[in-house]
Each structure stands twice: as structure tokens, then as C-alpha cells.
Amino acid sequence: MTDSPIALITGGARGLGYACAEAIQENGAHIVVADIDEQGVMEAAKKLGNGAVGMVCDMSKPDQINAMFDKIEADHGPVSILVNNAGIAKSGDFLETSPEDFMEVINVNLLGTFVALQRAAKTMVDKGIRGAIVNMSSINAQVAIPSIASYCASKGGVMQLTKSSSQALAPHGIRVNAVGPGSIDTAMLAGVNANPEAMKMVMSRTPLQRIGEPREIGDVVAFLASDKASYITGETIYVDGGRLAMNYTC
Questions:
Q1: I want to staple 137 with a disulfide (CB 3.0 to 4.6 A). Which of 49, 89, 94, 158 is the partner?
Q2: Is the pLDDT of residue 191 over 80?
Q3: CATH number of 6-245
């Protein structure tokens, strides 16, 4: 058991999840990172240090999510900060997308987020913990790309799940917010980074004229998870270099 607040970050092996773990750890939390990539998540925990723990979990499997929480609570104590970051995207022609491919994305990005959020909240309510939950949404909750319809649908769902759960949990002092990244320098954007024409298109829709860094997302997540955001709940903060504010392309 630890006296520090326990923060669970899903999809924490790399990218946005790891950046969130770093930022929240600097605020004094005991970190648990979870990921489907066993080697990656164990390496991430070792790199974080300070007693950080790595756990393997497939976020599309409710049984695995619940078992993970059981183990965290037994070994370390209840989670008071949850970052629902795990997510996948599958691209393809809209007319050729199979129900199986669509549901694979929904099961990780939306169902997994719901199950983890609900499971964390149940313990918070039971133990009187005024916790903080931060979900990873996307600018694609508001705008759309036709080749990733399932991803867009899942992130729109995360935005609405954030709103509805924040209302349900507010009487218990539990805050639920979301962060919606724009184009961030992660593996998901690697194909764009390698394609000058694709990058030119991205920059045409990004007033700050650069892609974001993972830590820029991590710092916003850490803020929302902290007492500095104690009167914020039900919100999605878009960290997108100004993209959603743009009315036309240059």
C-alpha cells in the first residue's frame, strides 16, 4: 500500500499514455501503467521509476479490466486518478468497413473506457474518494475523417460518456473530464510525418503551424487530474493548435 494517490493510466506503454504518466507522477502520484504490450509496459514502468508498476490488460475485455482493478486494489490500494488513454484506429474505405473492424475499435476506445470508468468510480464511491477521471477523446469527436469512421464514432462517444458520467458522479465529488488532441507526434501520426503532402494538408488546418508534442497533452491531463481543476467537470479540452477554431483553410 502507498500513501500517495494511485493513478492508473491505460495505454501507458508509450506516446500520450506515457507522457500522461510522467506528468501525473511529477504531481506526486504513485503510477500504474497498463497496456496490451507486455514488454512495452514493463519497460515504461521501469523508465518511470519511483515504484511505478506495469500491468498487462486488453482494454476490449471487461473481465481483464475488472481483474486489473482487483489486483491494483489488493496490492496497492484504490485508484483515485484514472486516465482512460488506451485507443486504436483502423483506417479503410467507409463502404468496405466490416462490422467486425468497426466493433474492434469501439470495444477498445469506448467500451473499454466505460468499463474502466465505471469500475474505478464504484470503488471511489464506496470508499468516499473524491477522485478524478480523464478520458482521451479527440478533435475527431467534433470533426470527421471518412477513412476512420469507427475512430470518429468512438471518440464522439467518449465525449458524451464524459458528460453523462460527470453528471452521475458529481454528487460523490468525482470529476470526469476529457482531453481532445489534434495532430500529435505519436506513432499514430507516423504516416503523416513521413508524407510531405499529408503534412502540408495538416498544417493548412493548424493555425499554430506545428504538430503537438505528447507532453503537451500529458500536462493538460495532469492539470485536469489535479486539485487545480477542482471546479471543472464534464468538459473536453481540445489541445489542437487552434484547428477547431479555424473557419477556412488557407
A1: 158
A2: no
A3: 3.40.50.720
Confidence of residue 196 (pLDDT cuts 50, 70, 90): confident
Task: Select which of 151, 231, 238, 248 is catalytic.
Answer: 151
Whether residue 250 has pLDDT greater than 60: no
* Catalytic residue status for 18: no
- Asked whether the beta carbons of 224 and 166 are under 8 A apart, the reply is no
Quick: pLDDT tens for 120-158.
Answer: 999 999 999 999 999 999 999 999 999 999 999 999 999
How many residues in total does the chain contain?
250
Q: Measured between alpha carbons, how far is 117 from 78 in angstroms, rounded to an integer?
A: 13
Which residues are CB-neighbours of 71 under 8 A, at least 6 positions away? 55
E strand segments, the chain: 6-10, 30-35, 53-56, 79-84, 132-136, 175-181, 236-239
